[in-house]
Amino acid sequence: MQKTELQVEKIGKPNIQTLPEAEQRSFFETLLAHIKQLNEQDGK
Q1: pLDDT band at residue 29, thresholds of 50, 70 and 90?
Q2: What is the pTM (predicted TM-score) of this model?
Q3: Which residues make Cβ contacts (< 8 Å) with residue 17, sequence separation at least 6?
Q4: CA 40 – CA 38 distance, rounded (Å)
């Protein structure tokens, strides 16, 4: 099984709600797609 390590650095307080609705949707769709992709990789 391949192990994926991520390092996240946060600057300030990000607020997704300040993005326009279309950008929020795009952000969450992209996030979900990456989660699904990682889940599929773990299943193999």
Answers
A1: very high
A2: 0.61
A3: 24
A4: 5
Burial 5-35 (b: 16+ CB within 10 A, else e): eeeeeeeeeeeeeeeeeeeeeeeeeeeeeee
Q: How far is CA 24 from CA 13, 20, 31, 44, in A?
A: 16, 6, 11, 31
Residue written as token pair 């946060």: 10
Q: What is the dihedral of CA 27, 32, 35, 40, to 10 degrees?
A: -140
Which pair of tokens denotes residue 34? 């990456």
Place of tokens 């709600």: 17
